[in-house]
Write a structure and sequence with these properties.
Layout lengths: L1 E6 L3 H11 L4 E6 L11 H16 L3 E10 L6 E2 L2 H7 L2 H8 L6 E11 L4 E12 L9 H4 L1 E2 L7 H7 L9 H12 L2
Length: about 180
C-alpha cells in the first residue's frame, strides 16, 4: 500500500477519501497544519497555493484539497468562500436566504492538488447537489444543509455513516490512477 500525506484538519475527509483510495492501493495519512488560504474565485488557484505552502514546510510528497459551493439561485454565491461563510452564517441563516429561492441546485466543485519535488498536479471534479432546506446531521452548514446524493442524505450524515457523500464521483479514482501510473 502506497502512503501519502494528506494535509487537512478534517478527519472525516481523510476517512472518506481512504474509502475510495484504499481499495486502489493508496492510504492517506492525515497531517494537520494551519495554512493561509488566499482569496480567489478560482478553487484550483486556492488549492495549488495551499499545496505549495504545505510542501515548503513538510518537504515530502503530499496532497491537499478544497471545494467551491455554487448556489445557482444565488448567482454562484458563496463559491470558493464557503469556508468563511460557514464561520459567519448559521444553518438558520442559510435556510432564511434560500427559503424563497425556487432553484435549490448547489454545484459542488472539488480540487485535489498533489505536489512533490518535481511536479504539481491538480484534479477537479464537479457534481450537482441540492439544498435540503433543513439541517440533517451535525457539522458546519455546508455539510448539514446540502446533499450530493439521490437519497438526499446530507454530507454530514454520510460522513457519520462512513459512506461517500457523492455517488458515482470519480475524482479520487482519477487521482489514484494517475498517482499509481507515475509511482509504480
Amino acid at each position: 500500500m502506497k502512503k501519502l500525506i494528506y494535509v487537512t484538519s478534517n478527519k472525516s475527509k481523510v476517512e472518506v477519501a481512504n474509502k475510495s483510495l484504499n481499495p486502489l492501493g493508496i492510504q492517506l495519512i492525515q497531517q494537520k497544519m494551519e495554512l493561509v488560504e488566499i482569496q480567489s474565485n478560482f478553487i484550483e488557484e486556492i488549492t495549488k497555493k495551499k499545496a505549495e505552502q504545505a510542501f515548503s514546510i513538510i518537504k515530502k510528497p503530499l496532497l491537499v484539497n478544497d471545494a467551491s459551493w455554487n448556489f445557482v439561485a444565488l448567482n454562484g454565491f458563496p463559491g470558493a468562500y464557503m469556508k468563511y461563510v460557514n464561520q459567519w452564517l448559521l444553518p438558520k441563516d442559510f435556510i432564511a436566504i434560500m427559503k424563497r429561492q425556487k432553484d435549490k441546485t448547489v454545484i459542488y466543485t472539488e480540487c485535489i492538488c498533489y505536489i512533490d519535488d518535481y511536479q504539481t498536479k491538480c484534479f477537479e471534479g464537479e457534481i450537482k447537489g441540492i439544498f435540503l432546506g433543513r439541517e440533517k446531521g451535525k457539522g458546519i452548514p455546508s455539510w448539514t444543509l446540502v446533499s450530493l446524493r439521490k437519497d438526499k442524505k446530507s454530507i454530514a450524515e454520510c460522513w457519520k455513516d462512513g459512506i461517500e457523500p457523492a455517488e458515482e464521483y470519480p475524482l479520487w479514482k482519477n487521482f489514484a490512477e494517475w498517482y499509481k501510473s507515475i509511482y509504480k
